Amino acid sequence: MRTSPRPPVTPGRTAPSPNPSRSSQAPARSGSSASSLPHRTLPVRRRALAILSTVLLCATACAGPQPDPSASSAPEPTGPVPGVARNAPLHAVDPGLVVAARDIPETYPGSAPRTNDPTVRVTLGRTSPGDEDYRHGSVGLSLESTDLADPRLEEDNHDLVSILQSLHEPTLRFGGNSTDRRFFFTSTDEPIPTDWPLAKGEKITKVTPTDLERVAVLARRTGTSVILSANLARYDPDRAADLAAHARAAFGDRLVGLMIGNEPNGFHRGSDDPLNVKGPEWNRTVYARQLTAYARAVHRKVPHLRIVAPGAYSDPWWEVAAGAPGTAPFALALHQYPLSECGTRWTRQKPTVTNAVAPQTRERVDALVSRARSVADEHRVPLWITETSLSSCPGGNQITETLAAAVYQADYSVRVQALAAERVTAHSSLGPCHGGPPMSPLCSDGTVGSPGERFGLRANGLALALIASIPQGTMTPARTGSEDLTAFAVTHADGSTSLVLSDFRDPATAGPRTTTVTTPGPVQRVTQSQLRGGSWRATAPVGDAADAPGSPDGTTAGEQATDDAAPGATSSYPADPRVQLSVENALRSSADGAVSVDGYGLPITPPADRPEVAGVRSGATSFAVSLPAGTTTVLTIETEHATARPSATASPSGDGTPTPKATPGVPRATTRSGGQ
C-alpha cells in the first residue's frame, strides 16, 4: 500500500509527477469508500507490473557500478511501461499494463453522491426468455467500397490494427455511394471503364483480388468480420459472383455477407443530381428482379453466402428486398441518419446540438428501427444497420465531431441492439482529420490530397470503443425516471451486469445529479468508466494528435514532445513516425474539457481494472452514484454470486435467423434519413 496520501485526481488529469515504479501500487482509500468497501486485491495485471518493476529496479541497483550516462547515447531499452519497448503500438501491449501505468485511482473521482444535488432513479429488471442478445462484433465501422484499394488497409498499419482491436471483433462493412458510382472490381486486370458518368473531380477505383487478400490479412489479425458490396447500378450479376468467389477465398468465414448495391431507393434523383445513376424507368419492381438475378449468380459461385439488402431508409424498399425470391440466406439492411435535413425544412431534423440531444430524435430512431424490425421479423431474417451516423449533411457539419454526437452514438449503439439490430456499423472514412468527413469516427494525419498512415479516433470513435468494451451478454430491462437520462443493461454469464447511462443534460449549465440504481439482487461491487467533455461542442484532440510531423503543433519529424502527464516520460526520444496510437501517447491525459474516456483516449480501461463507485454497500440491492451532465457512463455491477469479473470477449454469432418477437409499441413517425 502507499505510504503517503494520493494527490486529488479528477477525470481528464493524472496525479502530479507520477513515478512508474509506484504506478502499480494500490492507492490508499479515503472518505466513505474506505469504511463501506472490503479491501480490494490489486488486479492481476497491476501485480504483474509491480513485480516486473521491482525486478528491473533490483537488476539495475545490484549490477554493480553503472556507466556514466553521458558516455553512452544508447536509448533506454523500455518506455514508460516496464518491459514494453518504446513507441510500442497499443495493439502489441496488454491494455491492463497501460491502464496500470496511468496510475488511475481506486475510487472513481466524483462518484460519491453529494447532498442537495438533484436526483433520478434507475431500476433494473431481470432477464427473461426473448430478451435480445448483445454480441461482440455488433459494433463496427462502414467504409466506402473504393477504400478496399487503399494500401493503408493492411496488417502493418499499427494504428488501424489498434483501432479495430479496440472494437473487439467488429464488423467492417465496405459500401457507401462509391459502390454504384466509382467501384470497379476485376479479377482479370480489365481496364477501367471510360463511359461511366462521374461528378467533377471523381474517378473510378479499380479493386482486384490482391486488394481483397491484403484486407483479409488485416481482418484475420484483428478478428474482424467483413461485409462487401457489389455494384448494382452497372448491372453485372456475373461480376458480383466473381467478387463473391474471390472474397470467400480471401476472407473465408469472416465474409459474413454481400450487399447488392447501396441505397437503391436513391438511384433515380433527376438528371441534375450528381448521385443520379438511373433513369425514370427505375422502380422497386425492376430492383427486385435484379436483386434476385444477382443473388442466384452469387449463390452459384458461393452457396449460402448471405445476401444483404437494400441498405435503405424506406419501408417499401425493405419489403421488396426482403420478399425478393432466391435471396436466402438474407439480412435486411437499414441505413439511418436522423439529423440529415441539410436545407430549411423539418427543423427538428437539422444537424444542431439541440436536436442531437433531444428526446424526439431518440424517438425517431426507435420508430424507424422498430418498423424495420417488423419487416425483418415478418420475413424471419436478421436486421443489420450497415450505415449510420448522426447526420449525413456534407461540408462543414462539425456537430458530428462533438461530445453531443459521441453521447448520441454511445446511446444509439446499445439502443438499436435492444431493438434487435444484430450488427451496426458507423459510416467512416480513411480521410484526414483536417478536411476529411467530420462524421467519421476515425481519421488520419496528412491532407486530403496526401493522407498519412497514422490514425486516431474522434469523439464518436471513443464512444464506439467504450460500448464495444462491454462483454457479450443479454439485453436486460432498465427504466429511468427522466427523459434526459437513458439506461440500457446487459447481463453477462458470470452474473454481472453492465449498465449504460447516457445523460443528455447540457454539461455547460447543469451540474452532477445523484442517480440511485435499484437492482434485482444484492450487489458486491460496482466499477465505472465514463465518456465526458467540457461542453456539448467539445471534441477529442485527435485533430492535433494526428497532425503530420513538422506541423504547427510543434512536433518535428523524429521527435516526440514530452509531457508531465505521461508517466515515466522524463526526456524526449525518437518517436515512430508511423504510429499515433502508441503507449506513450496513451499515457498522456486529455486536455481539460476535451472529450475523453476517463480522461484519456485508447485503450479503454478493461472492466476488471476500472475504479470503483464510492460508497457501494456490499449486499445492498441499491446504490447511488453521482453522474455529471453530458456523459455516457458504463457501470459494471458485480453481484455477490458472480463467478468471475467480466473481461473476456466472444465471437459474434450474427448469422442465425431470429425468432419473431413482438414489435415494441412505438408510434410511427416521419423520418428523413439518407446516406452520405
Principal-axis shape equals globular
Average residue pLDDT: 83
Largest sheet: 8 strands, parallel, barrel
Q: Could you say which structural class the secondary elements and strand pairing correspond to?
A: alpha/beta
- Treating each run of at least 4 consecutive H or I residues as one helix, how many helices? 14
End-to-end distance, in Å?
54 Å
The strand count comes to 23
Poorly predicted segments: 1-75, 548-571, 647-676
What is the helical fraction, as a range of percent? 10-25%
Kindly estimate the percentage of residues that lie in beta strands according to DSSP: 15-25%
Strand order of the largest sheet: 3-4-7-8-9-10-11-12
Radius of gyration: 25 Å
Q: What can you tell me about this protein's structure?
A:
The chain has 676 residues and is α/β, with parallel strands linked by helices. Helix content is 23%, strand content 19%. The protein has 14 helices and 23 strands. The chain has helices at 32-36, 44-62, 95-101, 158-166, 209-222, 237-251, 284-301, 315-323, 353-356, 359-379, 403-418, 459-468, 542-545, 583-586; strands at residues 119-124, 133-134, 139-144, 171-175, 183-185, 205-207, 225-230, 255-260, 307-312, 330-336, 383-388, 421-427, 442-446, 451-457, 473-476, 478-480, 485-491, 497-503, 513-518, 523-532, 596-597, 622-627, 631-639. The strands form 5 sheets. It has an 8-stranded parallel β-barrel, surrounded by 6 helices. The protein has a 7-stranded antiparallel beta sheet with strand order 2-15-17-18-23-20-21, covered by helices on one side. Helix 11 runs parallel beside helix 12 (459-468). The protein is globular and about 70 Å long.
